[in-house]
Amino acid sequence: MKRREFLRSAGLVSAGLALSNVSVGELFAESDAGWRTFEITTRVEVLKPSGTTHVWLPAALIQKTAYQRTLSNKYHAAAGRAGMTQLKPDALGIVSATFPAGQMPVLTLTSRVQTKNHSVDLSKPGNAPKANHAELEFFRRPTRLLPSDGIVMTTAMDITKGANTDVDKARAIYEWIVEKTFRDPKVKGCGLGDIRFMLESGDLGG
């Protein structure tokens, strides 16, 4: 998929046609700790704006992980107003910009991140830190579009039938998703992510 088609289908631009240039540069060689530093610049321009224009861009993770840490997220919207909303429980940051009618909407986001190789062998016991109960409950919580009861639970139980461990269950669900679901470029924004509706309708494309 071409980059501007992706931006349009993902709902990043609300008006007109966007042209996005994404560049990634390695700034420094690998350090003695195994971390490498990169700078990622994304530039979005709406070529045919109509009225007030809104542009959204995902920023680099706002929290550190074992494999990635963000040094900075810098954004610029010369003819508009821009800001970043942080969703700390999800470690997500979204840069949004609003451009008044008559102005050429151009939003640039530059993120500096460090990454390192990271792997986990799920077949062997490890020295993982003790799980944070509140964090686990947050990511297991049901939502309006991701319920954990009804047809969703029934389907999950059917998929994992015969699987004895958490790893086996997770692998079974992953393989089911790979086999059953598909990308449908005709669905605007890849769909709403309404899992119950997808299962009830049998339409697993988005």
| End-to-end Cα distance | 14 Å
The overall pLDDT average reads: 84
| Biggest sheet architecture | 4 strands, antiparallel
**What class would the helix/strand composition place it in?**
alpha+beta
Find the count of extended strands (DSSP E, 2+ residues): 7
Count of runs of 4 or more consecutive helical residues: 5
Helix content: 10-25%
What spatial order of strands do you see in the largest sheet?
A: 1-2-7-4
Give the DSSP E fraction (strand runs of 2 or more residues).
Answer: 25-35%
> Which regions contain 5 or more consecutive residues with pLDDT less than 50?
1-17
Number of domains: 2
Q: In angstroms, what is the radius of gyration?
A: 21 Å
Order of helices and strands: HEEEEEEEHHHH
Query: In one word, what is the shape?
Result: globular
Task: Give the tags.
206 residues, alpha+beta, 4-stranded antiparallel beta sheet, 7 strands, globular, disordered N terminus
Question: What is the structure about, briefly put?
Answer:
This protein is an alpha+beta fold and 206 residues long.
Walk me through this protein's architecture:
About 25% of the residues lie in helices and about 30% in strands. It is an alpha+beta fold. The chain has two domains: about 110 residues, no CATH class; about 70 residues, no CATH class. The strands form two sheets. A four-stranded antiparallel beta sheet has the order 1-2-7-4, covered by helices on one side. Strands 3-6-5 form a three-stranded antiparallel beta sheet, with no helix packed on it. α3 packs across α5. The relative contact order is 0.13. The N terminus is likely disordered.
